Each structure stands twice: as C-alpha cells, then as structure tokens.
Amino acid sequence: MNSKEQDFTKVDIKNYPNLVNYKIGLVVSEWNIDITTNLLKGAEDKLIELGVNKKNIIISWVPGSFELVYGSKEISKKNLDVVIAIGCVIKGETDHYDFICSSVSNGLMQLNISGSTPIIFCVLTDLKKSQSIARSGGEYGNKGAEAAIAAIKMASFK
Known about the structure:
Blueprint: E1 24-29, H1 33-50, E2 57-62, H2 68-75, E3 82-90, H3 96-114, E4 119-126, H4 129-135, E5 136-138, E6 141-142, H5 143-155
Parallel strand pairs: 1-2, 1-3, 3-4
Antiparallel strand pairs: 5-6
Helix pairs in contact: 1-5, 2-3
C-alpha cells in the first residue's frame, strides 16, 4: 500500500496516558545498517516525542533480518510492553530475498500468536535500495515512526 498521501505518524496521546511508563524493545538488524539506523531513529524519536521515557527504550542489535525473530523472542522476556523488529531486505539476483522475507514475517507472526508481548513488523522488503531510502526518512516518510505508533497502540491491549 502506498502511504505517501496518508500520515500514519499522528496519534492522540490523550488515549495513552501512561506512555512514560511503557517499556519498549527495539531489535535492529545490522544488515543494510544505513537504512535500519534511519528506521531506528524514526521509531525512537517518535516514541520519545509521544512521552515514552528514553531509559525505557531498550535497543538490541542482531546481524541480519533473519535473526530478528530470535532477537525479538529473547528481548520480549524482559517484561516489555511491546517489541519493534527493525530490518531491511533488498532484492538481489537470487531467491535469498524470498526465503528471508518469508521466514522473518512467518517467524514474527508466530511470536505474536504464541507470545504475550506484541511484536511489531518494521522490516522493509524492497526491490531497490532507493525504495528503502524513500521509506526510511525519504519521500515516503519513515516506517520506523509508523511502527512506533503501531507499538503504542498494540501495547495498550495488554
């Protein structure tokens, strides 16, 4: 879905009065680190803007997007309200892209089904790096900030 014309980064914080106490884990892939760092910044900035205490944001790094599943599982054991899995997979010349994208999305879905901590999917799956740049602070906004909004909304279910 093209979200260029929509702003998903707005939230009425009156509906979430205890954001300062939310504990949020961010699991970030080192692969395509220029993109994932931008997504991380977007998520962290949005969480702080909304009132989450910076000391309650735990950031953990994993080697690649495939490892986001294990990283998210492990960090969710730390009594968190929500976890955001941040990664970027860019299509290359082999089927590797398909296997990684499928494995990560299915793995994170399984954590949501079986676990008690919501896991937010913030993994860009683009055909070209220019698309990832556009979605990590470029012309299409920052999907990290959008993931932060989803995290706040999902944490409120607990």
